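Appendix B.2, paired examples.
Example (i):
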Amino acid sequence: MRIGIVCYPTFGGSGVLATELGKALADEGHQVHFITYQQPVRLNVFNANIFYHEVRVPTYPLFDYPPYEVALASTMVDVIMNHDLDLLHVHYAIPHASAAYMAKQIVKQKANRNVPVITTLHGTDITLVGKDKTYEPVVTFSLNESDAITAVSQNLREETYKFFPIQKEIEVIHNFVDVERFNKKPIDAFRKVIAPNGEKILIHASNFRKVKRVADVIHVFAAVRKEMPAKLLMVGDGPERPGMEELTRDLGIEDDVRFLGKQEQMED
């Protein structure tokens, strides 16, 4: 199949999952076209079945906010028409689902083709951003116009039905793990560097946004550290990081917490 994947290209969960899914589909022989405003951070390998199409958003003095959704829909149309895509799989509802609906209608009118759209919900597109009354009508409409809807957890499925009048079935497809990539490996050398005295090692990985409750992680670690020697590895980056670094100093645990920043090779 020829599949278009639309996602955010950042270290967030939706972008990572979409990219890894596309890479796996390409390995299975499908032709995968990524459509986004910059190359996804996890799209770091060459594969003859993978293509990247950049969404270019022109800037004009008239626009305080460049119309990314319009540029995205136009790019989708261009990729569908020129590469004869069989379907679009859009990750994160805002604004991808509504842009996909627009692109689908344009292709239907121009080429009399009905390109299916699958929308995958990832979390804050429903539980946080999507519930804002500014976005809710468009989110509801574009989800109901999707040909299929999936969610990454049962809870997210239930939350979607609770807050949005969705008339279609939402199928739960959990996030996957590449067991060939993520498997137990000898880590003695790593452990000796991080925990030279045999301390327990705890790890938190996220994009350091408030919704990730990073402060709770640090407070829990402080409580654990009172009971046993331990080290905490904080993997990732984001707006909450400076405050969290200050929190470790306030709690007097800064020597046992390491902020490692963004890491592409998480298995290492």
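Example (ii):
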Amino acid sequence: MEKGKNLHRSLQRALDIMELIASCSEGLTLSNISQKLGIPKSSALSLLNTLVERKYLIFDSATNRYKMGIKMFEVGSGYLRESEFMDAIMAVVAKVARKSNETVHLAVRDGRDVIYIAKIESNHPIRIASSIGKRIPAHATALGKALLSGLSDKELRELYSQQPPERLTANTICEVEKLIEEIRKVRENGYALDYEESSEGVRCFGAPIFNHNEQIIAAISIAVPTIRVNEENEGYFIELIKEAAQEISDILKIYQKQSLI
């Protein structure tokens, strides 16, 4: 540190906390953070409460661990929008849209919802009604199921402990245990399906995107009007979205490893 610089101690500590938690995919407890950074628990707790309130962190009451929040992603996205890194990711999204000729979304999870962060529309006259920034319930979408697959069964029960999943269509999974069974299939298969569970007449195929810590941080999906889905293209959409998710995960890992050098 250069002499004469007037640095804010509390702000430095808050940034240290965010950087530490970002490097730990399973999250950290108050004791972990206090010990690793040499910060008194009382001081650390005050900073953590503020960061949780502002959504830079989330607190998992089931494990007593702090994890990255949606605001950390949003702030990072502001930089990524101007970077070659995001250009590389959007090139993959565009390739999926071109090969499928259907609408493709990128999304992140915020609690029980998913938020669209990117979209490329189909060229078909019948398209999917959606917009960047839109929130939809995670349990009823392929994107959301892919993102929820990063949680344990215990974490899923905690997430829906206060209020069960809401019904959006006749096909929506509204029972927590049935949803957990569905998420287990996503973990096993590496992809998620939406059978008109969020919108009638729409099928979706989604897959999770991993960072260099093998933590699910986003998901990608193909949304298709049910009338255009058949036995032949269903398997094609699944393989296409799995390959795209892996390609984006690889881009993330390369970028993040370079940023750590």
